[in-house]
């Protein structure tokens, strides 16, 4: 009987020891934080995977995600700068970077998502109210700049206060309510047509200016070239006359003969009928006498 009591006592002690050891161990998995709380206060954070120890019955464990999370906001109505009501939905990529601050403020992931929803909604509403609807749907650069600005502002709102790091906020869709689509699209078509007409008018005006300038340049260039050509011709004729005079003054008789022969060429061109005295010097020279 006494031996049985010893056996039962040993089993109870072993069971108590097992329970004590198991309550002292906790496992940290990949992609999670284990926050060790002592009387409700965070005393340490374990982020490396493995088996860890804690004080049983005094310290407790809270698990928080370490990996990046994606939160999708529900569609919300927003008014653009040109007073267009649109439905906007977006998603946010975020993670917990300071579990201590997060536990003290948000405490739970669902509460953190609510904080993100409020910050993103207020920022998106303010940013989209500063641009026209046509810019949102047609200019990809504007959409990109808006996403960067929204991400930066939401990050600043949540990082230090709640221990939440927002890495990206993206607008997925900006739709008009069904009852407003047709009127808005017609207005956009009219605006684009007016813009096209303006561009065509500006293009025609620029074309006329360029053509007039080109024509004026051509006329000025031709006039300058003609003036220069006349100047060169005059100088050439003057130089030719000087050379002729120098050559003719060297032998006046030869010059007289040359001039006479030149006059024959001119006079007899076309075989005309000419009546001249037979004894005239001009005739004798023509006949070789």
Structure, described:
- By secondary structure, the chain is α+β, with helices and mostly antiparallel strands.
- Helix content is 61%, strand content 21%.
- It is built from eight helices and nine strands.
- It has helices at 2-24, 99-105, 109-128, 133-138, 140-162, 178-250, 252-267, 281-287, and strands at residues 25-28, 32-38, 41-46, 50-53, 59-65, 69-72, 76-79, 85-96, 164-175.
- Strand 7 and strand 8 form a beta hairpin.
- The radius of gyration is 52 Å and the shape is rod-shaped.
- The chain starts with a helix and ends with a helix.
- InterPro entries: Band_7, Band_7/SPFH_dom_sf, HflC.
Short structural description:
InterPro entries: Band_7, Band_7/SPFH_dom_sf, HflC. The protein is an alpha+beta fold and 289 residues long. Among the domains are: 23-62, no CATH class; 69-176, 2-Layer Sandwich (Tetrahydropterin Synthase, Chain A); 252-289, no CATH class.
Write the layout of secondary structure elements.
Blueprint: H1 2-24, E1 25-28, E2 32-38, E3 41-46, E4 50-53, E5 59-65, E6 69-72, E7 76-79, E8 85-96, H2 99-105, H3 109-128, H4 133-138, H5 140-162, E9 164-175, H6 178-250, H7 252-267, H8 281-287
Helix pairs in contact: 3-5
Which labels suit this protein?
three-stranded antiparallel sheet, about 290 residues, alpha+beta, 9 strands, Tetrahydropterin Synthase, Chain A, single chain, four-stranded antiparallel sheet, about 60% helix
